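Researcher: Please translate sequence to structure tokens.
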Amino acid sequence: MKKIDVNLNDRSYSIFIGSNIFIKKNIFNKLKFGKKVLLITNFFLFNLYKKKILKLLNFLNIKVDKIIIKDNEKFKSFKTVKLIIKKLLKKKHTRETTLISLGGGVIGDITGFVASIYQRGVKFIQIPTTLLSQVDASIGGKTGINHKFGKNMIGTFWQPISVWIDLNILKTLPKKQLISGLAEVIKYAIIFDKKFFKWLENNILNILKLKKKYLMYCIKKCCKLKSSIISSDEFDYGNRALLNFGHTFGHAIESYFNYEKWLHGEAVSLGMVVASYISEFLGYLKHSSVNRIINLLKKVGLPVNLPKDVSYFSYFPYIIRDKKNTNGIVKFILPLSLGKAKIFNNINKNIIIAAIKKCK
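Model: Translation complete:
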């Protein structure tokens, strides 16, 4: 099992990465649980992992309650938050309770949000079950729920006390979800690490085949990159915003289609293509690098073209409401070259439209 530390003073925690890690009875021993736990998951995952998780917690004499929720973006809402809080209150959970998220990014975000507001804050643990949540969403303490006018517009910063990543869980993941998660992997390479990008060009199909050697290297690399930037900018005042590469337009796509048409990684893929074209038009990113980015996305089956029946202007209300924006200034994260990116303000609207048109 590999261990990566996220250094945040009294909010520091560890990310554990391995295979079949829930076989060992003592894996949770060092964590300071209260006497009660609420497990938040979906129906499929609960039936798949309830015996293993419950056995580990029962071994520590911890009482476990559970709540089963639906976990697509449409259910990342106040309604779901209310259901979880109702369960906590009915079962008389106190501030000593620990919440455990067993699921992808949606369940992780909701669990973290509830943990941050229930009785002014309780502990929570992330057990991410999708590639996207293992490399990105479960790390860093960003929690949130959606609004019809924008994604993740309601949220908090609330760090987990640990993150547990089991590579074997990915065997249960539909291929479409696995492909979606690779968008976030490619994102890290584009903005932070040219060598990693080249490695992905040569090995990304081995990750799709779930070959453990490649999977472990990939997930560990992404976790290290994210933990490093979080440790230096926990509350998103500076360079942490680089992690939103592809998300300005990606979130606009998700919101416009009411979180129904595109998976998060698919929308981010399109967002990265738009941002890459903007960078090229501004004279930063080489045309050859834009092609390499598009070719890598296409290689794994991620979308690089937008629906032809939607007006370019339809996305703009959502772009303008992006939570990175300040004082009406639209921010875009643009790659300057492979492995290097920068935050830009006030990109000309005509350039954004031209970039969107290139994706038709």
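Researcher: Any highlights?
Model: The longest strand covers residues 331-337.
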